[in-house]
Amino acid sequence: MKTRRNRKNLNLNPTGDPWSPWLHVDIALVLSSIALAIIGAFMVYSATRGNDPESYDRAYLNRQLLFLVAGVVAMATAAYFPYRRIRDWVPAVFWGGMFLLLLVLTPLGVERNGTKAWFEFGSFQLQPSELCKIAYIFMLANYLERFNGRLDARQLGNGLLLGLIPIGLILLETDVGTALVFIAITMGMLLVAGAQTKHILVLTVVGIILSTLVWSSGVLQDYQQDRLTSFIDPASSQTEAAYQQTQAQIAIGSGGLTGQGFGQGQQTRGEFVPEQHTDFIFSVIGEEFGFVGSVIVLALFAIVMWRCMRTARKSPDLLGTLICCGVLTLFAFQMFQSVGMTLGIMPITGIPIPFVSYGGSSAISCFVGIGLVLNIHMRRYQVV
Amino acid sequence: MSVSSRYLPQSHRLRLAVLAAVAISLFVPLVARLWYLQVIKETAFVERAADNTTETIIELAPRGRILDAKGRVLVDNRASILVTIDKEEMSTVAEDDLQDLFFDLATEISRSGNLTKVQEIESAYRSNRYGPFAEVPVVQDISEELQIYLAEYSYKFPGVNTTVTTVRDYPYGSLAAHILGYVGLLSEDEMPQVALKEKTYLANDEIGKSGIELFYEDALRGTPGTKVVTVDKFNNILEVNEEIPAKAGSDVQLTIDIDLQALAEQELARGLSIAKQQPTKFEEEGVVIFNAPAGAMVVMDPRDGSIVAMASYPTFDPELFVSGISNDDFDELTDPGNFLPLLNRAIQGTYPPGSTFKPFTAYAALDTGLIGSRGILSINDPFYDEGVFLIPSCEGGTCRFQNAGEAAYGDVDLRLALTYSSDVYFYNLAASFDILPGFDLESVQVAAKSFGYGSRTGVTLAGEGSGRIPTPASRRDAYRENPDAFLTGQWLTGDTLNTSIGQGDVLATPLQIVNSYSALVNGGTLYAPNLGQRILDPITGETQVEFAPRVLKEIFLPDAFSEPILEGLAAVTTWRSEIGTEGTAYNAFKDFPHEQWPVSGKTGTSEKQVENTLIADYGLFVGWGPNPDPEYVAVVVLEEAGFGGQVAAPVIRRYFETIALGRVPAFLSQAEKDEIAKEEAARLSLNPVTETENTNEENTTS
Q1: Domain end: B254, B273, B292, which one?
Q2: Structural domain of B248
Q3: Tell me, what's the ipTM?
Q4: B245 and B262: one domain?
């Protein structure tokens, strides 16, 4: 049955017209990701407009809408060039990204909240680690594709070594959260690329041992450790991190089933949750739109992930599958980690919710990821 | 032409499925947690959010102002910066550091000009009257610079805050301080009382402690308001959800006239300082020095019983109480060695009224008929005053009584007896009450009491004294209580004699004296004196309550009684016989404008024995005018100052003369004086001559 339908679909592009892939754009993926970004923009507005009804501050809203437009353009661009052709440019882009990660450690980079991860251009900031996520996914997929779905120890090791480059550089920024995202991406892609079960088990054990060693070695600062543990019992901790999580939960809890309404959240208006427009933006959603609104946002994420997974399965080649899995892992991990920390079930690691949180680098990076998935989806019938 | 997904081997499909399963499983804890927070725990979190974001602010209401009869503001409010200590926050400071903190704070406050001791701060902080979470007031009235400094260096002073409060302001300085009284922090003793009051009191609130501030507390007190607000993290107010506005206290308008009050205070002080300059009086017993340390003066309108002026000397500066009075200052104000400046002698000082009491003895004789048809002599009958009176068939105690200086006035009738202040004439009356059958031995006391002696007048001030009218019964009781103070518990004829001239155990407050004369000159209406005229709305100025004159009683006082008494008293200031005998205040009122402003009066000189040491006489004078329908009755009492006719009468003379000639100066507030000085300076600086003079001066000095 499936074969027959595929065969029939094959006829949909009999001419080889370069525009014909656009007939196969995944509308559901585009709409759900843009919907998330629009909801995000309004949440950013609610979190930043201030309390003077005479003159609400629209600066953040305007910029976030600008990022949204830039993201959609970036998405279209990423979808336009056939991904198999892009592959040739990937090493250059990847190493260029690594260079930027190195550069951000120099005095050119700017430090915020103890993390040195930004370049500043006037009122805009660029976070190279965000952009590197997609480059890394493509780079890793490019490397792993050639082993046709079965990795031996050496190939696995090479893949890990490749991953260690951005992860190491990002750890030097002391951006543990983003480093964890890269680790998650690496693990997800290695799994799909054919890592053997025994290797995965060994890696897991090594990972646990390494984490323990790092934890007890004193490399992490006290405040970093505290961020990672305070979610277990926030009441016992007097730190900013515990306060942040407690306030976020008060905001979300007081939203109830249907929320207090847009712009009506008392916690949000009082700015009780630090970073409520970036990493903790889910507290605004929870307070103002309640359980129903929160679940709708999560459902949109589920749609995005479902479409990524669907494309991964429909991809004509392993490269496409790996890219889709990388993007899927990226979204899944970031969404879970970021919403989880806002809800108080994950430690604070300071990473944004894809599409929703305020921030240009993150928005563009996420939309480029969507663009690549669309790229694969559009060209799923083309012969490799 | 392979189909898109055909390349995928089975193992890959499995791996993708694993990844998909992991991704899906991520949603489970998130949704579960959302359900827990938003549905199960909603109520608790809604409450916590409300705790976070709503706050109830108590808005203090300003106290009402106190105005004079013409609406000039005697007591106002002004903003003042208060240093407070947040007990909860400061309790986190280690005990060792606390001492340093207090020391630094005291240093900074003192340096800014508000001398403060470390102990004062510490005792305020440790005081039990505030709960562990309270903001304890420490120092009032600091400068704005210090407030900024404390905010800037708040890390050096954990728990130290400043707030702006309103405090009392006295535009006219110490004027009428005894009448106005002062406010202070609510004391622990007062808390149970204020709990019953209609208006809310908080631990840091001020309450009237004396004078008008105390008496009209309920009117003056503002009603604090509450405001429920939504705040943000930094306690900025986002919106007001509910507001019960604070209501300022009502203004109280007094019957006092600032100008006449100032004049009274000035003349009282001048009278005392003149009395001090008298040559020391030598007597057989020793040297008597006119200390003239204290006195009182009350001016009343006899037509309605309202008080026009009330002065007590020495006085105090109510400003001292504004920042919370220091212990040293308070000790000084309550030290008998300083003659108790806080004491309002006009209502709290009790004095033997001396000869000022005689008109009431005269009234007793007329009322009982002792002078008249059934008595010993008629109004116009002369009685021969030889200067000495011997009690007939005397049975003990003193039997020989005499006029002051044994002066013999010869033939005196009732009028002349009052004009000359003949003691002997009144001794004769008193002895007749005591001896003659059919007359009540206590006739003088009954008459005095009907004019308000021996009981409080009911003036609208707290702490009034009631004076004393001695009777055989009261003597017995007093003797039983304190046998050492009296020779015998028995009431002797001599006691009646002493009582009849306002001596012995007779004591009266200046206010009682002025009030009794007021009834005498107004035809017999005894008022409860009023100091409050009306209560006004603080914003619109509309009258909320008008205080009508309060008539205590109508005394039986037919013209046949009052005329001879008032005629005799009118002559006190004007009469001089052919042989040179004068009314007792004739000299004091020489060249007074009697024609335009006819004035009467009665002098009094009384002896007060203080623990067997002889002290100088108390000089008294009561005067009124313009006759025949007086607008003012005034009394002055000068302690240890000498004869009433010599020292007290001139005080009233000067006072009435200033009024009679229309020369009462407008008393200016400090602000008004500054304004005038500024104008004067501006006028002078426009004058080129003065300018060159100034430059010359500068040149010579430099």
Answers
A1: B254
A2: 56-254
A3: 0.92
A4: no
Residues of B in contact with A185 (CB under 8 A): none
Given an 8 Å threshold on Cβ–Cβ distance, is B3 in contact with A194? no
H-state helical runs in A194-317: 197-217, 222-229, 240-255, 266-269, 282-314
Cβ contacts of B8 on chain A, cutoff 8 Å = 313, 321
The interface residues of chain B toward chain A in range 227-266, judged by CB-CB distance below 8 A, are: 230-234, 236, 238-239
pLDDT digits 0-9 by tens, B367-395: 999 998 788 888 898 999 999 999 888 87
* Element at B467 (helix H, strand E): none
Q: What is the pLDDT of residues A5-21, one digit of tens each?
A: 444 444 445 556 666 78
Q: Which of B23, B38, B46 sits opposite A305 (nearest CB)?
A: B23
Number of domains in chain B: 3
Same domain, B534 and B622: yes
Burial class of A263 by CB neighbour count within 10 A (0 to 12, 13 to 18, 19+)? middle
- Kindly state whether residue B23 falls inside one of the protein's structural domains: no
pLDDT in tens, A133-153: 999 999 999 999 998 888 899
Query: Both B418 and B489 in a single domain?
Result: yes
Q: What is the pLDDT of residues B112-139, one digit of tens each?
A: 877 888 888 888 888 776 766 677 888 8
Return the pLDDT at B692: 45
- Is there a single domain that holds both residue B354 and residue B426? yes
Please check whether residues B250 and B262 belong to one and the same domain. Answer: no
Compute the nearest-CA separation of A127 from chain B (Å).
26
By CA distance, what is A377's nearest residue in B? B4
Peptide bond between residue A347 and the one before it cis (omega within 30 degrees of 0): no
For residues B482 and B359, membership in a common domain is answered with yes
Q: Which residues in chain A are closer than 8 Å to B49, comparing Cβ atoms?
A: 250-251, 253-254, 266-267
Range of the domain at A237: 21-378
- pTM (whole model) above 0.95: no
Q: Are B623 and B573 in contact (CB under 8 A)?
A: yes
Looking at the complex, does the CB of residue B2 fall below 8 Å from at least one CB of chain A? yes
CATH of the domain at B160: 3.90.1310.10
Residue B601 · residue B634 · CB < 8 Å: no
Least confident among A289-298, B226-235, B682-691: B682-691
Instruction: Considering only CA atoms, give the Rg of chain B.
Output: 37
